[in-house]
Amino acid sequence: MTSVEKTLLGRTLTISVNNGVSASGSTKLKNRSFSSINPEATDDDIYNTAKALGGLMSDTVMKVTFSDRNLLQEVEEE
Fold it and tell me: What confidence tens digit (pLDDT) does each residue in 30-74 have?
């Protein structure tokens, strides 16, 4: 019998900042990404870090996204 095992490969925090207005009038965004996020960091830790980093940026923070990259693989159960 097999099961699927998940292994965390990496985490990325992306802060999207206002980068002006397009010709059509919509807001343009510029993304700033940070990798090598501590696997033990909680969602609150990550969000508070994003707020602190956003406070250092000259542009207005529009959104914060966070993603995990995982490897899924089959493993044999004994």
Answer: 999 999 899 999 999 999 999 999 999 999 999 999 999 999 999
Q: Tell me the C-alpha distance between 36 and 76, whole Å.
A: 30
Query: What b/e sequence results for 2-11 when a residue is b if at least 16 CB atoms lie within 10 Å of its CB, and e otherwise?
Result: eeeeeeeeeb
- The token duo for 1 is 């019998």
Name the burial class of residue 72, with classes exposed (0-12), middle (13-18) and buried (19+) by CB atoms within 10 angstroms of its CB: exposed
Of all helices (H) and strands (E), which one includes residue 55? helix 43-56
Nearest to 62 by CA among 12, 13, 17: 17
The DSSP string of 64-78 is EEEEEEEEEEEEE--
